[in-house]
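[job 4471] stage=fold_predict status=RUNNING
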Amino acid sequence: MPPRTRGGYTSDAPRRRPTGSERRRRVHLREVDPVPDPDPVEHPQHDRDETEVVFEGAPGGPIDRSILRSFHKHVAAKIWLGEDRAPLKLVNHGAKLQLWELDMERSRIYETVHRSGLAPLTSCSHRVASRPMLSAFCERWQPETTTFHMPFGEMTITLDDVASILHIPVTGSMISFPQPLRVDDANALLVELLGTTDVEASRETEQCRSPSVRLVWLRDHFSTITDASSDDDIMFATRAFLLHLVGCTLFADKSATSVAVVYLELFRDLSMVGSYAWGAACLAYLYRQLTTATKFEVRQLGGYLTLLQAWIYEHFPEMFSSPDMAYIESRPRALRWRPHVIPDSLQSVRERLDRLQISEVCWEPYVDHRAEHPLPDIAWYSGCLKCGQVVEPYHPERVLRQFGYIQTIPPRPFTPPRPDRSILLEQYWERWTDHVLTDQSRGRRCHYSGSGESVPEYMAWYDRISHRIVQPPQLRSGFTTDARSSLPSHAASTSDTRAARALTLLRLVISGGREQSVDVFWGALNDAHGILAGSDETSASHSTPSPAPASHSTPSPATLPFFSPATFVYPPAASDDPPPLIVPPPPASVAPPAASGPPPPLIVPPPPASVAPPAASGPPPPLIVPPPPTSVAPPAPALDSTASTTVYVRAKRKKKT
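[job 4471] inference complete, writing C-alpha cells
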C-alpha cells in the first residue's frame, strides 16, 4: 500500500486542497449496529449503509444531524441566529373558483366533473388563508422526514387527512409525465385539446413566458359555453374547467395567475379522469412546496393551502380554529371550519407553538367522520408519492400517534429516487398493498383514544435529532434591541426561569387537593407573585406549602412548556439575580421599635407615614434625643375651624356666582 501523506492522501496521487465547505463540514464515520426491523419495507433506490454519517450539531438545532442533514440551510437555523423572515406570501385561489361556477345551464360539464372525483374541490376551498399561522408551520417543516417537528414529536399530513378533508380519491394511477413540457409542445396541446388556434396558443404562452396559460384566459374563452353549445365545444370547455380547477386548488404554483399546460394531458380522455390518485399527487406537490418554503430566501408559498389550513384546524382546534356549527359529517371536513385570519403576529404564533404541549393536540380528529368516510388502507403505505417531476417520501411510521398507536423510534428516512425513473415508481405504487405497515410494524395501540403516547426512549432520541424550539428565548416578545444588548448572558432567560418556578410552585399546591388550608393557598399565590415580580423572597407569615401526595411528582423544568432540554441554556440559580432596588416600607400601623433604656423626657412626633424611619444600627443613648431631620419640616399648626369654614363658604359662593 502506498504511504499516506500528512493530509491523508497517498503519495502517488495529486494532493488537492480542501474546499471551504469541506473544512466547515466536520464529518466522521462510526460503525453502528443495524437496528433490527421487525417487518422491513423495501423502498425503491433505498439501501441502508453499514456506516452512519454523524454531523456536528448546529447552534440551537439538533445535536445529531444525521437525520436533518440540511438544517444549516433551514429558515429555523437563521431565526435561531437572530435573522428573521416576514410572513410568507400565500397563493390562494379560493375566490377565483367562484368566478366560474357550474349552474343548471352547464349540467353536462358538471356530470363529467362529478365522475372525475374532483367535484368537492369546487365548494370546499377556503377563500381566506392566515399568513402568520401557515408561515409558522412552514418553519417547522423538515424536508428529510417530510414532517412538522413539534416540541413533542413529529406530525404530518397523511393520505387519511387528504381523503377526509377533501373527499377526493387517494388511490388509482400515479400522475406522471415522461418529460418536462416545452413551449412548442404546449402550443400543440392547446390546439389539440382546447380547440384554440396556433396564434392564440402562441400568444398566451408568450405572455406567460412559460408552457402555461393564465387562469383568466381560460375563464374568458370557455366560461360562456352552455349545454346548448356543440359537443366539441362542451368537451373543450370541460377540459378547460378541469384545468382551471386543478390550477386553483391541487397544483397552485407561485405564479399566482397561471397553470401549467402539462396537466391538460391528464384530461385527454375524460372517461379516465377518475382513475388517477389525485389526493396522492396533491400531497406530493404540497410536500415539495413546503420544502421550498423552508429556505430562508423564499418569500412565497404555493400548493393547496386549504388542505394545510384545514389540517391545522383539525389537529389544533383550541389554538386556531373556528368551527361551523351547521356542518354535517357527510361533507368534506374542510367545510367544518370557518377560515379566518388570526390577529397574532408571526412571532407570537412561533412562541405559542414553542410552548405547545401534547395535551393540546387532537391526534384523532376524524372519529365522528369514520361512519361516512372510513380510514383508507393506503394511509399505511410507506414509500414515495409522485406528481409529474415531483417525488417525495411518505413516512406513516413517523406519525403513528395520528393513527391511534404508540409512537416508537422510526427507522431512518429514505432518499427518494430520481423522477426520471418513473417506471420503477409506477410499479412500486401499483403494488402499494405490499408496502403497507403490518400490524407488527404499527405496534401497540394507545391506552385510550387521543392520548398521543410514545415509548419512554422516544423523547430522548427526538431531543438529539430535532429542533424543538424555533424562537430563541432571548428574542422572544418583551425584549427590545437595546435591552437585549445590555442584558447579561443569563438575563435573557430570567423571565422564563421565574415563570417556570412560579408554575412549579402553583402545581405543587394544586396537586395537594382542596383539603389544604386557605393560608397555604394564599402563601403560594403570594410567593408566585413575588417570583414573577422579581423578588425571590417568600412570605414569612405562612408555612411552606405541603408537598404533593406520593402519586404526584414535582414537575421538572423539562416538562414545562418554556424549556427544551436539547436547546435551552439553563441560567444560574435564582440567588445570583440582582436584589430589588426599591425596598417597600413597613405598614403605617406598625410602630418603630422602642429604644432600650428610660423613655426620653420630650415627645418627638413621628415622621410622616410615607417616609420610612431610618434603621437603627444599635441601641440609642438613653438620655439624648436625636433632633428631627433637617429635611423634614415641622408639622404645620392646625387651622382654626372657623377660618376653615369661612374659606369653604367663600369658595362655595364664588362658585355659585
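[job 4471] summary: The first strand starts at residue 27 and ends at 31.
[job 4471] exit 0
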